Amino acid sequence: MLSAFLSAFRTPDLRKKLLFTLGMIVIYRLGATLPSPGVSYGNVQQCIKLVQNGSNGVFSLLNLFSGGALLQLSVFALGIMPYITASIILQLLTVVIPRLEQLRKEGQAGQAKITQYTRYLTLGLAILQASAFVALARSGQLFNNQCDQFPAIPQTKIPMWLTVSVIVITMTAGTGVIMWLGEMVTDKGIGNGMSVLIFTSIAARLPSEGWSIKTSRGWPVFALIIAIGLIVITAVVFMEQAQRRVPVQYAKRMVGRRMYGGTSTYIPLKVNQAGVIPVIFASSLLYLPQLALQLMDANHPNALYTFIDRHLIKQNDWVNITVYFLLILFFTYFYVSITFNPTEVADNMKKYGGFVPGIRPGKPTSEYLDFILSRITAPGALYLAIIAVLPNLFMGLVGNNKQNFPFGGTAVLIIVGVGLETVKQIESQLMQRNYEGFLR
Amino acid sequence: MAESKRRDEDAVDEHLDEVLDDAVDDDSLDDEDASAAARKATAVRTKSKDDGDKTDKKTVKDASDDRPGIFGRIGRFIREIVAELRKVIWPTRKELLTYATVVVVFVAIMLTVVGLLDLGFAKAVLFVFGKGQK
User: Rounded to two decimals, what is the model's pTM?
Assistant: First the structure.
């Protein structure tokens, strides 16, 4: 197997792609460590140390998704979150606004336009979030007011408004760079850029979080968590590999004096056709209330504030878990409906003289595919939701706090899902050269 | 020449199809009647041969026919899910183990790479920007 990893590097074009992706990851991590101008790196480091001993966690999810960059107030502090949020919003709007739907149906050109809108929206969201976080950092709320002796943004001779606006501009520009990095990875590298960057962020947090579990709870708990992780990995691989094969027969056709076609293949419909995107979408939607909470007045809490504070943002509260569960179910169906269009597949099959045995081509075929897809996505969605939620529930029962969140289902699901996707893409590239990949 | 020959063959096929004409969709490929006819013929043949997919079609039809109560519909939906799940091809034990191992190895490699990068960058940034003041 190791030799296969080596042979992946020996294939010239694959090596180029791998190195390109790695290079993008290096830039991403550099930006995540680099402090924004006007931020005192040493003070922030002190604060993080202080907060980690205490009970933080308001921003744990956000901090996880930005790879620890958020609390450091670095150039890439916002991470890929604004981009994800923007693309969710636009995809949801596509269903609602007729003009966007028209654009999507236009094909390549329309898609490019939608991407363009996504980018603008991303920048807008980035400005919003950056201002919110800078305001929080200045007031000390970012570190739960535990860190007032080390100001994150110390006073200098430069007027404060200038410093603050420079930080906001830097973070927004950082988000723009991340967006570009993600698209470059999708374009020239391996895997889906957005997923790869999230993968990197989570990978950056895992070792330190694991170590903190080990030091605070000892070896047995640590071993238990590793074991749970392995079980989850196997379960994820099992479900991601399962597929329903719809047989397709191609008609023989005469072109000139030759016979063509007559082959039989199948359409692979995965049980979880959507991959890990629903989980990413659901969890990034669930962080919005946290953000809203910070913008609300904490001194005069109204009913909504108390509800969000007590239930919605607590990782192991039943309201949070239920909402998360339902969101994942919704997004799985939603994403499958976006990525797999039965009518299009049926039309394509008809065009090339293919048909499902026993089903007429055209509309009946598309209805048949739709029937299978909607039935088979149900267990797929349930599996995603259960894997994402179960560890949280379990940890809630055991009585751990949300410090263990990085080892919750969401993170493991994203890690394994993206890992599997990337590995399979490498594998298929490898197969073009030599016939033995590493997934024999 | 070849054209007329094919026409002859078609005539036979067409005759065969006449009975099932309403059951066969022929709005496409009107100009290429040869291949269309060939397709029809295969369609008819496979239809009679393939029993498994015939039952599939029946369930599709059933779904749009009668409308029982909400529980009945949920029950049927679940039964259909189970029926589809039976046709799913699950990975074998060997496949599962190889994929799981490969993923674990890949993740481990990425963890090390990212961890080393972070360590290096943190050191470098600390060196450049210093400890900070109160």
Answer: 0.75
